[in-house]
Design goal:
About 25% of the residues lie in helices and about 25% in strands. By secondary structure, it is an alpha+beta fold. It has five domains: about 130 residues, Jelly Rolls, CATH 2.60.120; about 110 residues, Jelly Rolls; about 120 residues, Jelly Rolls (Sandwich); about 80 residues, Phosphorylase Kinase, domain 1; about 170 residues, Transferase(Phosphotransferase), domain 1. Helix 17 packs antiparallel against helix 19. The longest helix has 24 residues.
């Protein structure tokens, strides 16, 4: 059946080498290691009609389709085989055969002439690398830094920030296409540029060293810089170019070294200053926008919370002096607020009013599509910037304005909530144990901040004990996050959220005593299955929807959804864990950058401020990953990942159904105010989507439905569903030296 050629190296096939990096099971392997994997690949050709694999065969490796088309067939209970998908160039299958001998779950048949595949056999792979290792993703935060990093977050004393008009023009040109700047409003971008300071460098001087933590972004005014990766010259940049933008997001190790090839001049800004300017200006604008809306008589029935929702939907539009914004007699559905400049109102040819900053015009367009009563024209000899709100956006978020005008504000406040609570809330359990009553059974997980152990009390009740290093918390600036995690877990009780029983602390650590969930991570189950079918994905997504609906009803956002943070309980239901980035929203937006890179929403990447919509974005990413085995915007280069996130271009695998694609597109709308879950109806609209047609939500929340997978758990002390991490050293933690700030007093 098979014609197997010799093994081949990927050195001469860059496309295959790049593709191997996208295979989830191989993400943790370096470029050099993947080159060795490429040397193990075997070419296998199949004529039209031949089977690459047959359902029920024992799998011993995985295939990459290099050229041609195949169909995927599956039969149920010995019946006729049905087509369930199609595989084309670049698709792959059988990934889990690298883990162990598994029966093929479907047949794959060539449907075009001469299908060429690359085959990787498990035995050959294991001889080289041993067992496959899983790559788990690490969350990031703009607040993370190493206290002993040199020059971290600092700019020189008496830094020179004064710029000529030509210098400002050069900087604007340099950042014009940089996605961290294009998403900023004009006034925020201007403020950031004003904060850049001048830096002169000599020929041969390192501006950036590969591997070091980054905290500065640079724009080149003059001179040339060479960029090296592993001491190899990659490219050069000159005037009006920029580099180091990832540092504006978080302190990832620098991916390359940058060395001055001549005496040169730079304009620089630190991450802290950049994010302070973006957040400060953003908060000010958001407050100003809600203030503008409060002056609109037609919007008087709205609550403050609803005005914040609408403020999020305002869009900036720029007009040159002399531009006609709209003409008398034309139809209109947009309201305008003057942010900068002046707008002349002309009725029947005569000037009747002059609108200045803060003034509103055209607001009746939100009520009904009346023809415009006057012409409005930008004037004053300068650019006019208006904030705009169209009727459709208003109604998508809050419903028809007429409905609001009929409501009495007080009654409306009591009757209307943007996020109604989930129908189920479990009773929170608390314990009153002494720390010395807990005996360690084994380790459930390890991380850079500490570890999680399975422990039991004198009554043989078991718990998960999460220990976090105080020294590491302070060193990385995470005091606020860890305290927020405790406060959040104290108020949350839901069947799909990990329950907090008690907290402890000693000199060096903080401890969370948590509900034990011993079925393992959804991450592990997904990697073992490569993908879930739509019914499985619908079930796990439904658990998340229910949990998020409940959290949002309490104005809490989660911000770190991913399969690694979803545990399976003894019945196979989801339990969301790790609330380090959860936050109570006191206003409609927050500005902290945090989350897992593959799952960051565009408004977080762009620094525009974010709200509950980020959680619905992450749900869209999760559903895609469950159905396609990897997130939609994955790239080896983080900045390319973020560029894809901001542009929002999604490619769907041919195997994904139209129903799944429609839901994912609605959740991954790059404008949060257009995103399903944010629109009027909130989570209930998601629940009514066709993707969840088979779901009985009440039975789900009562944990009364059959789950797709029930983990094997022998008893309350069974650690077998977690990776064997060896013995944990009890004193393996950096000693904490109290800084006197008492930041953990309330823990």
């Amino acid at each position: 059946m098979r014609q197997t050629g010799s093994t081949m190296a990927i050195g001469g096939d860059e496309e295959v080498g790049a593709f191997l990096k996208t295979v989830p099971l191989l993400k943790s392997y370096s470029t050099d290691e993947l080159a060795k994997v490429g040397a193990l690949l075997q070419k296998r050709n199949f004529a039209k009609g031949k089977f690459l694999v047959k359902q029920g065969d024992i799998g011993d490796g995985f295939f990459i389709i290099r050229s041609g088309t195949c169909t995927v067939l599956r039969s149920e209970a010995g019946g006729a085989a049905n087509k369930i998908g199609e595989l084309k160039t670049g698709d792959y299958f059988g990934e889990t055969a690298l883990l162990n001998n598994q029966l093929r779950g479907a047949s794959v048949q060539a449907v075009s002439d001469d299908v060429l595949t690359f085959f990787l056999q498990r035995d050959a792979f294991e001889k080289l690398f041993g067992k496959v290792r899983f790559a788990k993703r690490v969350a990031v935060s703009a607040e993370q830094f190493k206290a002993n990093d040199q020059n971290v977050y600092k700019e020189p004393k008496n830094a020179q920030k004064k710029k000529t008009k030509d210098q400002v023009k050069l900087i604007k040109k340099a950042v014009a296409k940089n996605m961290l700047f294009t998403g900023l409003t004009s006034d925020v971008q201007t403020q950031v540029i004003q904060e850049m300071y001048e830096k002169s460098v000599k020929k041969g001087e390192h501006v950036i060293k590969q591997g070091e933590r980054g905290d500065h972004f640079y724009v080149v005014e003059s001179g040339t810089f060479n960029i090296f990766v592993d001491d190899n010259l990659v490219t050069s940049v000159g005037a009006s170019r920029c580099f180091g933008e990832l540092a504006l997001m978080y302190n990832a190790p620098r991916a390359a070294s940058v060395v001055a090839d001549s005496d040169a001049k730079l304009w620089c800004i630190t991450r802290v200053n950049y994010r302070e300017q973006v957040a400060s200006k953003g908060r000010g604008n958001f407050s100003k926008y809600t203030g503008f809306l409060s002056k609109v008589d037609l919007l008087a029935p709205l609550t403050h919370k609803e005005r914040e929702v609408i403020a999020d939907a305002l869009e900036e539009k720029t007009f040159s002096s002399g531009d006609t914004i709209f003409e008398q007699g034309s139809e209109g559905d947009i309201m305008y607020i003057v942010q900068q400049g002046e707008v002349e109102v002309i009725k029947d040819g005569a000037s009747v009013a002059l609108c200045k900053a803060g003034d509103i015009f055209g607001e009746r367009a939100l009520l009904k599509n009346d023809t415009r009563a006057a012409t409005c024209m930008a004037t004053g000899g300068e650019l006019v910037i208006c904030l705009t709100l169209n009727k459709q956006a208003f109604e998508e978020l809050l419903g028809p304005l007429e409905d609001h005008m009929e409501a009495v504000s007080k009654q409306y406040d009591q009757a209307m909530t943007l996020d109604e609570p989930s129908s189920v809330e479990v009773t929170g359990k608390k314990t009153n144990l002494r720390f010395d009553q807990l005996n360690v059974i084994g380790t459930l997980g390890k991380g850079s901040f500490g570890h999680v152990q399975l422990v039991k009390d004198p009554s043989n009740n078991t718990y998960a004990l999460k220990a976090v290093s105080k020294a590491m918390i302070v060193e990385t600036g995470q005091q606020g996050h860890i305290m927020s995690e405790k406060k959040t877990m104290d108020v949350l009780n839901h069947p799909f959220l990990i329950n907090l029983f008690q907290t402890f602390k000693d000199r060096d650590r903080l401890y969370f005593l948590l509900e034990p969930v011993l079925g393992g991570e959804l991450f592990t189950l997904l990697r073992a299955n490569t993908v879930f079918n739509e019914q499985q994905a619908s079930f796990y997504a439904a658990c998340v929807v229910s949990a998020f609906e409940y959290m949002h009803s309490k104005d809490i956002i989660y911000r770190d959804l991913k399969p690694e943070n979803l545990l399976l309980d003894d019945k196979g239901f989801i339990k969301i864990t790790d609330f380090g980035f959860a936050k109570t929203l006191t206003a409609g937006r927050t500005w902290t950058l945090c989350g897992t890179p593959d799952y960051l929403a565009p408004e977080i990447v762009a620094g525009k401020g974010h709200g509950k919509g980020v959680d619905w974005w992450t749900l869209g990413i999760l559903i895609y990953e469950m159905l396609a085995s990897q997130p939609p915007f994955y790239d080896d280069d983080p900045m390319r990942t973020y560029a894809k996130i901001v542009t929002g271009d999604i490619t769907f695998p041919s195997s994904m159904s139209a129903v799944s694609q429609k839901l994912i597109k609605k959740l991954l709308h790059n404008k949060p105010t257009k995103r399903l879950g944010v629109l009027q109806g909130g989570a209930k609209k998601i629940k009514k989507h066709q993707f969840f047609d088979r779901m009985d939500w009440n039975e789900l929340e009562q944990r009364n439905i059959k789950t797709p997978y029930v983990p094997t758990i022998k008893d309350a002390e069974d650690l077998s569903n977690f990776e064997d991490l060896g013995e944990e050293e009890s004193n393996d933690v950096e000693q904490y030296v109290d800084d006197g700030s008492n930041w953990d007093d309330e823990f």
